[in-house]
Amino acid sequence: MKILVCISHVPDTTTKIQFQEDGSALNSTGVTFVINPYDEYGLSRALDFQEKEGKQVSITALSVGGKEVEATLRKALAIGAESAVRVDKPALDSYQVAKEIAEYAEPREFDIIFMGKESIDFNSAMVPGLVAEMLGMPFVSFATDMQLGEEGAVTLKREVDGGVEVVESQLPIVVSCQKGMAEWRIPKMRGIMAARKKPLAVISGANAEEQLATTSFSYPPAKGDTVYIDADAPEKLIDNLIEKGII
Amino acid sequence: MSVLLFAENAQGTFKKATFEAATYAYDLAQAMGTTLSAVSVGQVSEEALASLGKYGVSNIYDVRDEKFNAFVNTAYAAAIANVAKKIDAKAVVMTQSYNGRAVAPRVAVKLRATPISGVTSMVDPADGFKALRLSYSGKGVQSFRTDNDKVVLTVKGNSYQITENPVTAEVISADFSASEENFDAIAKEIIKASEGISLTEADTVVSAGRGMKGPENWGIIEEMAELLGAATACSKPTADMDWRPHHEHVGQTGIQIAPNLYIAIGISGAIQHLAGVSSSKTIVVINKDPEAPFFKVADYGIVGDLFEVVPKLNAAIRAAKAAV
Ligand SMILES: Cc1cc2nc3c(=O)[nH]c(=O)nc-3n(C[C@H](O)[C@H](O)[C@H](O)COP(=O)(O)OP(=O)(O)OC[C@H]3O[C@@H](n4cnc5c(N)ncnc54)[C@H](O)[C@@H]3O)c2cc1C
Q1: What is the CATH number of the domain that holds A65?
Q2: What are the chain A neighbours of B131 within 8 Å (beta carbons)?
Q3: ipTM at complex level
Q4: For a tag site, which of A33, A40, B163, B258 has the least CB within 10 Å?
């Protein structure tokens, strides 16, 4: 079974986000970049298929981006992917990234394309659905579980408003993952050593064009001052909230 | 030229998020000098459909083939794109829901439109549909534009005020039957999370963390939620320790929410927690540690022991309710 795990290279979740003075881009000075946490669920599930369920799988990790994403791809190799591919194009918007992924995947006939439910930098949640539509594949989003059945049948669970939906589908499929899909794995020393020798190919890609241009970044409006309420008379809070029409 | 709303229903009825998207789509249609149409997929009653007229929808394309009873993103996208092409829609608007985000990218590819996720302000149709959306998990605001003359956008919940713009709505039966191969990932059943209010749709959320000491103490949280008609949420460690169900976990790696009122009790306010809740309109923080980082983003703060403060608050809410 061939699995493609798409990986977005994002600032670590503890990063204090700061933009360049002119608002053109993230100021990445001092920022640690990591595998997008949601993408790691897909990678971990792919490894579970192999290790816990005895399936024959080959896992390719792919990222669209400049040379800087190679360290993140090496982490995916250390966790357990067999090979990695970097599409040597800056990641500009959901459409362009999806197009590059679809162009790479199309001739290679992957059984599963795993992605995260969203990337924690742009939070669009669009790339997986775009890739699925470009490739004419079924798509299950916000997946919290995936089980392989007979003859390519798959059963997934996905988060929906107020519950969990059980979905039946068929390989090949695009799945966007979230918490529940698998446990994150910490790379072991042996994995880190092995990762150095694993293949990381750099390809030039398809020259897909961006559709949605970022004109600038800014910060959300600052919160006003906190109104402190005396703990001995907390009912003042309720009066305040009622007065403001909040409750 | 026109604007098309995908009027998403939940078990046959329209919810608040759909009316927000409808209001947004109506305002956009006005700005473009055109009318608003909607497409409804699945079984929705005639009255419910007609009620969309209250929010400015003039024409409602009703796709109610039985095959659409269960949600299938491929088939739904085919139905929506079919109507969009028929009426030459320049903008397709939907909610930023689980299903909205599953369908929007497919519709965008079918229409060669630019997909835009989670807009928080009105797009300018005269200038590249420029507008704003959040990025970096709420820590940044992205201004964007596109050269494309067609867009598919999802509207972030609780970011656009519902207004009524009554028109007479005409329901048009759109007998679209998508081909078999579109039914490629079929929802077999929905396991309800709980009888309580859904977290993503709640106006008020009462949330608690490790400060609760143990799952047996959650009674006062549930009581407050019930008194306020609120949903309950929790921090990641409390879900990881199985004090609370996983679907209540909010934050960077959990659910992202933006209710009108978020009450955080015994939660420190780690950056990953804030990433999921900082777009809430009003934030109340109750914590015994005056240095807790959560106070930095709080509108109201109470520094004190939650085991004393929360019961007093519950009594005050009960008293206020009795007074009306
Ligand atoms: C990659 C990554 C992703 C993460 N994602 C998330 C996420 O999505 N959501 C999330 O919540 N966390 C997430 N975390 C964890 C996060 O960093 C914090 O550890 C977590 O939010 C802390 O939970 P807490 O506030 O309940 O517990 P604590 O940090 O232990 O805080 C408990 C608070 O309760 C207060 N308290 C204690 N007793 C009382 C009392 N009697 N009265 C009043 N106050 C009291 C304390 O002062 C303290 O501030 C993530 C971490 C990582 C590394």
Answers
A1: 3.40.50.620
A2: none
A3: 0.96
A4: B163
